[in-house]
């Protein structure tokens, strides 16, 4: 599979209208999150992947800004600790899966183990190829356990990434976001594109499909993710618990 989607696409949406709809969707997500928690039958797992500066943090900030902090948990998977490295690659991931009633967000995820490990040749090809099937089986098991999965690849162009890196370097408020390692990873741009293309081909399933989100325009990125999250939660037909009869205090 080749990534042919245009990272600068806006789907014909206007910026002002898109921002207005995003705000409405954010309010809808907040309302549905309360129902998700009260209902207690389902969990939602949102997976965000993308190149550096593709907007994973910004997506979390904008799409989940109205949600009760007690109802959403954000987890980022960095280099495994020595303890984690001794176990299978999904061991630490399963521990971070949201419990029922909660929205979980993976800002980078288990897919790092078929991306970074592949690009930097940390494991043999037969190992990372085998992981596609293992990931699909893992996600199917979660879905069958009422953990519903939305996966977004934030597709940014190389030119836009450079612009965002430049802004980070020039803006004192953003400089902390920049790391020299970002430039080292940028040298592997084409290798990462091939790795992502394979992930999208082999790990987009009926139970956990990928959505490629054009991410050069932040306002469009936020709209697409907010729409999808709100629609998925609405499809769960969430309900509040049945009203229980009040206690008969006359017998006390």
Describe the structure.
This protein is α/β, with parallel strands linked by helices and 252 residues long. The protein has a single domain, classed as P-loop containing nucleotide triphosphate hydrolases (Rossmann fold). It has ten helices and five strands; from the N terminus they run αβαβααβααβαααβα. The protein has helices at residues 15-39, 56-63, 82-85, 91-96, 116-119, 125-144, 158-170, 180-186, 189-202, 218-235; strands at residues 43-50, 72-75, 103-107, 147-155, 210-214. Strands 2-3-1-4-5 form a five-stranded parallel sheet, sandwiched between helices. α1 (15-39) runs parallel beside α10 and α2 crosses α10 (218-235). The longest helix has 25 residues, at 15-39. The protein is globular and about 75 Å long. The termini are far apart. The model has no long low-confidence stretch (mean pLDDT 93).
């Amino acid at each position: 599979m080749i990534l042919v989607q245009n990272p600068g696409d806006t789907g014909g949406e206007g910026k002002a209208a898109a921002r207005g709809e995003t705000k409405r969707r954010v309010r809808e997500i907040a309302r549905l999150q309360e129902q998700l928690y009260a209902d207690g039958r389902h969990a939602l797992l949102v997976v965000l992947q993308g190149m550096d500066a593709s907007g994973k943090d910004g997506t979390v900030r904008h799409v989940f800004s109205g949600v009760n902090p007690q109802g959403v948990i954000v987890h980022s998977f960095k280099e495994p600790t020595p303890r984690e490295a001794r176990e299978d690659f999904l061991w630490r991931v399963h521990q971070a899966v949201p419990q029922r009633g909660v929205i979980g967000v993976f800002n980078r995820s288990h897919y790092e183990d078929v991306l970074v490990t592949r690009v930097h040749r940390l494991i043999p090809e037969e190992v990372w190829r085998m992981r596609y099937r293992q990931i699909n089986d893992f996600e199917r098991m979660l879905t069958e356990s009422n953990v519903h999965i939305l996966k977004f690849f934030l597709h940014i162009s190389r030119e836009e990434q450079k612009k965002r890196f430049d802004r980070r370097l020039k803006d004192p408020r953003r400089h902390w976001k920049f790391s020299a390692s970002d430039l080292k990873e940028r040298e592997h741009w084409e290798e990462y594109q091939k790795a992502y293309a394979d992930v999208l081909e082999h790990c987009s399933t009926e139970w956990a499909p990928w959505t490629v989100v054009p991410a050069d325009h932040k306002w469009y990125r936020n709209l697409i993710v907010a729409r999808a999250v709100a629609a998925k939660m609405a499809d769960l037909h969430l309900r509040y618990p049945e009203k229980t009869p009040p206690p008969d205090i006359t017998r006390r």
